[in-house]
Amino acid sequence: MSVVAPSVTNTGDVAGHLEAAILFLSVVNVCLSRRFDGASMVRSCPYTGKAVPNMVCRVSDLLAERATETFVGRTGEIADLLGLLEDDGGPLVMHVHGAAGIGKSSLLTAFAVLARAQGSTVVTLDCRVIEPTPRGFIHELGAAVGVATGAVDDIAGRLSQFGGRVVLTLDTYELFGLLDTWLRQVFIPALSDNVRVILAGREPPILTWNLAPEWQGLFGAMSLEPLNDEEAIDLLTRTGVTESDSRRIKRIAKGHPLALKLAASTIAERPELDLEEIAIPMVVHELTRLYLAEIDDPLTRRAVEASSVVRRSTQSVLGAMLMDAAPRDVYERLSSLQIMESGRDGLVMHDAVREAVAAALKSSDPARHQDCRRAGWRQLRSEVRTAAIADLWCYTADMLYMIENPVIREAFFPSGSQQLTVEPARPEDEGSVMAIVQRHERPHAAEAIELWWKRAPHAFHVIRDGDHGVAGFYCMLDSDSVARSSLADDPIVAAWFAHLADDPTPNGRRLFCLDDGLAKNMGRCRPQCRPHAGSTSNASTWSCAQFLDACT
User: Each residue of 328-377: pLDDT tens digit?
Assistant: First the structure.
């Protein structure tokens, strides 16, 4: 993979939204489940054998428990997670990882029901709907636990006040790749020792969690594998599939929970359908194709295909992509499908299904795939012009998702194929950073970057690869921290300041200035200066970003 030179006019490129990518990044919805209010009777936990009280709870808790009625298997995994509730010096952080659709969210839901039944407080966050920045994370978590300030210590203090064991779960954690370092180095260390953290995502934990001496014995990882034959049949039986059909489906779906459910839905519509053997990597894709083929209504099928090209489906976006249909009707058709999940800001298709549907549409009808993308993009661009400041991050994520540049897509919507992380640069990284600079920059430019390293090392971040080596870097500075005497050493920065002097930014806005970036096997990027309206700061701010060798 290689970084593509950005262009403001090309919607398939990085440019117009790189500033938003750095300052916002992705997406917010928080569900806080409070502790049950009282006990009515005692029962035995099937995973630990210990007596636990049945609690009086909210309707949302009852719905969550009802969802666990179809949950099967994972006895060892559940027991390990429940072990986090014990005071035996076990891990403070547990990382659960597995392929899309393997059942990570279902596991967290089942665990939460049992943990609350034992008197623990569980706070559940979905990273898909949280702006992946420290500010966004603290804001939403604070709102969930009743803290109005944006201070880490206040959040930590509030969690300690719940008493007993408190568990914070972060689902879809692969979207927090750029926030991982801050969580590991700043947020989690600030928590009291009654708090446990569960991270669940597609990708295994980055190497630093295991290498850092301070996390030895305090961090654990859990890999979710497909269900075994007995568990697969049990799951299908609980969803109403006959024993004979269960055995047919089990053979095809390879124990993958999402594939099992897709196959069950397909068989329900066409019991006579002959399901052929499918290679494991293609199970979800092929079963998605079969599922889609069994949707008899042409409008519903078109709606599913259109929904696959956008991050979230709203009535307005669906109306733009399907102009011959009533938006509300289309929205209701989609919301009735089991592959769609309803959120507070629209409908979201399961990631694995969305990827399969989009790939099939692009292959079979590339013109319609492109038409849907263009219509969706235009609608989002129209809405973002009048969106409230609080909603800008959401539209940023929507538009970033539609950029099919592989670097951008991998950075903000990871597939699990790479292990790139962003961390503050350390003194020992100087040699690696300067080697990248010298490989790509002319001598005078390299000298300027080296001077910034010496003057403001805190402004540098590095991109580490799977081997923990430096694959790239960027530098981001605030104009208020830059001494005017240093401008003579960097003519580009001097030109930015001259521009700001002649044309100051209005109050409430920040100016994002992007120096030319370089990429492995690519040419130079076009410099961009764009106003950023999403800030409440009165200070003019600039940032110089260089993404070099970001991907190998």
Answer: 999 999 998 878 888 778 999 888 888 889 988 998 999 999 999 999 99
Residue 177 token pair: 């790749």
Tokens 């970084």, located at residue: 3
Same-domain status, 117 and 265: no
Q: CB of 28 within 8 A of CB of 136? A: yes
The number of distinct structural domains making up the chain is 4
Query: What CATH number does residue 71 fall under?
Result: 3.40.50.300
Amino acid at 106: S
User: What HEC string does 75-120 produce?
Assistant: HHHHHHHHHHHCCCCCCCEEEEECCCCCCHHHHHHHHHHHHHHCCC
Three-class secondary structure of residue 389 per DSSP = helix
Q: 50 is in which domain, residue-wise?
A: 34-223
Per residue in 305-314, pLDDT (tens digit) is 999 999 999 9
Residue 192 backbone dihedrals phi, psi, to 5 degrees: -75, 165
Q: Six-digit token pair at 227?
A: 């269900």
Alpha-carbon torsion 97, 101, 105, 107, what sign?
negative
CA pair distance 98, 228, nearest whole angstrom: 15
Place of tokens 């350390």: 426
Query: What does the alpha-carbon distance between residue 446 and residue 536 come to, in Å, rounded to a whole number?
Result: 34
The reported pTM is 0.67
Instruction: Choose the final residue of a domain: 345, 366, 386.
Output: 386
Find all residues with CB under 8 Å of 299, minimum gap 6, and list them. 322, 325, 329, 330, 333
Half-sphere exposure of 231 (CA within 13 A, CB side): 14
